[in-house]
Write a structure and sequence with these properties.
Protein name: Enoyl-[acyl-carrier-protein] reductase, mitochondrial
Order of helices and strands: HEHEEHEEEEEHHEHEHEHEHHHEHE
CATH topology of the largest domain: Quinone Oxidoreductase, Chain A, domain 1
Strand content: 15-25%
Largest sheet: 7 strands, mixed
GO biological process, one term: fatty acid biosynthetic process
Main location: mitochondrion
Number of strands: 14
EC number: 1.3.1.104
Number of helices: 12
Helix content: 25-40%
Keywords: Fatty acid biosynthesis, Fatty acid metabolism, Lipid biosynthesis, Lipid metabolism, Mitochondrion, NADP, Oxidoreductase, Transit peptide
Distance between the termini: 72 Å
């Protein structure tokens, strides 16, 4: 009996020491996991509605960086009308809740997974598609969800190159073959897309006829676009058109953003040409949505990379200047969203 008690005590002591050792290991692992856990601040919404009602600044734990993922420190993220529409639930893209706001921006790669070869720590990158959730200080994503951009362009240039300049680029390249000396006509030409159209077309040797509203601040918005011919709505009459036709070739491409095919956010109804104009003059009407283009070409990343590289090259050479932006500290996000909903405001960019 004494021998049996000694055996039980011995095994009990061994089991106790083993349990204490395992518990110490588990505690160390939990501590290590806590040290490796990254926390970010993010603008989160859990239902659709007005941004003042549904958007909240919260702290979020980031998932671990898997072998095919990267951790990104967001540097700057614009506030666009489409972002407001997504919050309201009126945009074609519906995120899974809870969702982080923001579709556009630029970040710096902080950490890469073991299988990632396209990116390195220190690189700048922008989101490939919409719904990324850029209104946060950090993010972990698949490496295929972002694309590298050069660091020798401006921070605001990198943050705002992924939507409006890309839209302008695709419309000038995808619908009608354009050669040097050709002409494009557009309305709403003082918009961000319109200004990009002017400059990208000029780089292609293509002339632009630009129709703008007669506003008191119009001159300020056109400092970088003086190569274009400017015509306000009020003076674009029959006589002016005839005089214009003597100076430049007949336009091969027309871009309508005032409630038209590529201005998807405007709810105004628009008339279209009569049937005989469509038939006998071979006029084609096409809509364009950059998000759909990116979805359709997701399996061919070279197209997106070539477009972004071309636009970055124009930025580097000074042939493309993006509209001036208002820089807003991340904590003042409500002001940026409020101003984005006001008419005739510059793009507001959140700085993290």
């Amino acid at each position: 009996m004494r021998a049996l008690r000694r055996v039980r005590q011995t095994w009990g002591s061994v089991w106790c020491r083993a349990w204490e050792g395992n518990e110490h290991q588990r505690t160390a692992q939990r501590a290590e996991g806590t040290r490796n856990l990254h926390i970010c601040s993010a603008l989160v919404y859990r239902q659709n509605g007005a941004h003042a009602d549904v958007l909240r600044l919260e702290r979020m734990a980031l998932p671990p960086v898997d072998k095919h993922c990267v951790r990104l420190k967001i540097l700057a993220a614009p506030v666009n009308p489409a972002d407001i529409n997504m919050l309201q639930g009126t945009y074609p893209i519906r995120p899974t809740f809870p969702a982080v706001g923001g579709n556009e921006g630029v970040g710096e790669v902080i950490e890469v997974g073991s299988d990632v070869t396209s990116l390195s720590p220190g690189d700048w990158a922008i989101p490939v598609g919409a719904g990324f959730g850029t209104w946060r200080t950090e993010a972990v994503c698949d490496a295929s969800d972002i694309i590298k951009v050069p660091k020798d362009i401006s921070l605001l240039g990198a943050a705002t190159i992924g939507v409006n300049p890309c839209t302008a680029y695709r419309m000038l390249h995808d619908f009608q073959p354009l050669r040097p000396g050709d002409t494009v006509i557009q309305n709403g030409a003082n918009s961000a897309v319109g200004q990009a159209v002017i400059q990208i077309a000029a780089a292609l040797g293509v002339k632009t006829i630009c129709i703008i509203r007669d506003r008191y601040d119009i001159e300020l918005e056109w400092n970088c676009c003086r190569r274009a011919a400017l015509f306000c709505h009020e003076i674009l009459e029959t006589e002016s058109i005839l005089l214009l036709a003597q100076e430049v070739p007949r336009p091969k491409l027309g871009l309508n953003c005032v409630g038209g095919p590529y201005k998807k956010l405007n709810k105004a109804s628009q008339s279209i040409p009569k049937q005989k104009a469509l038939i006998f003059k071979n006029i084609h009407l096409r809509g364009f949505w950059l998000t759909m283009w990116k979805r359709d070409n997701r399996k061919d990343p070279a197209k997106l990379q070539a477009m972004v590289a071309s636009l970055c090259s124009l930025l580097q050479s000074g042939r493309l200047s993006l509209p001036r932006c208002v820089q807003v500290p991340f904590g003042d996000y409500r002001h940026a969203l409020d101003m984005t909903q006001c008419a005739h405001q510059r793009k507001h960019v959140l700085l993290m």
